[in-house]
Amino acid sequence: MSFINRLADFQMDVLKEVGNIGAGHAATALSTLLNKPVDMSVPAVKIVSFEEISASVGGPEQPVVAVFLRVDGECSGSLFLLFAETSARVLMNLLLNKEEGGEGEFTEMELSVLLEIGNILAGSYLSSLSELTGIQLSPSVPSLAIDMAGAILSFGVLSYGEMGDQALFIDTVFLEGGHQLEGSFFFIPDPHTFSHLFQALGVPGL
Q: How many CB atoms lie within 10 A of CB 13?
């Protein structure tokens, strides 16, 4: 029986609560960054197999802007924050007070802005996870990539062979004014990390 099938309902509820709090922290961070009110939809939180990750963001050929970093500590793993290219451009234009639109390659300044946005949002998720579990999480310096989802995720796998085969997937829509910004957060734990996570959260392991 797979790990996913062995998850009890209350364990999934705990993971959903982690996702809700993380998304709430990210919305607050985004609101502070933009200096504008930002609401969010109730995030979809689930455990997916690695093969399902690219499908969750529209397929392996879906162009995305991704921030990737490694997390060290008891809950070590790899973290991806993915935005559709259109959402990333809207978010960047809001931050830079630019007119809507724009196409073609991002400038160096725009790439720097996107990396900082991703760094802040990823840090919000990790902070909420650390506060809930009491586990110290040490993120690496993040990197930014713009490519097809499948290529980005495959690079992460090839670079870090210790990654597990399941991911905590949190899909959230942030709402600012008339804009909808959809972002997907994936935490792919190293093998055995989920058991440490459940133990820290005070629920029985698997």
A: 12
pLDDT of 64 > 50? The answer is: yes
Percent residues over pLDDT 70 in the chain: 83
181 phi and psi angles, rounded to 5 deg: -120, 110
pTM for this model (two decimals): 0.77
CATH number of domain containing 181? 3.40.1550.10
158 lies in a domain? yes
127 part of a folded domain: yes
Instruction: Return the HEC string of the chain.
Output: CCHHHHCCHHHHHHHHHHHHHHHHHHHHHHHHHHCCCCEECCCEEEEEEHHHHHHHCCCCCCEEEEEEEEEECCCCEEEEEEEEHHHHHHHHHHHHCCCCCCCCCCCHHHHHHHHHHHHHHHHHHHHHHHHHHCCCCEECCCEEEEEEHHHHHHHHHHHCCCCCCEEEEEEEEEEECCEEEEEEEEEEECCCHHHHHHHHCCCCCC
Range of the domain at 193: 3-200
**Structural domains counted in the chain:** 1
The answer to whether position 124 is within a domain reads: yes
Question: What's the angle, vertex CA 179, arms to CA 174 and CA 185, rounded to 5?
Answer: 30
206 inside domain:
no
Query: For 90-131, what is each residue's pLDDT tens digit?
Result: 888 887 777 665 566 788 888 888 888 888 888 888 887 788
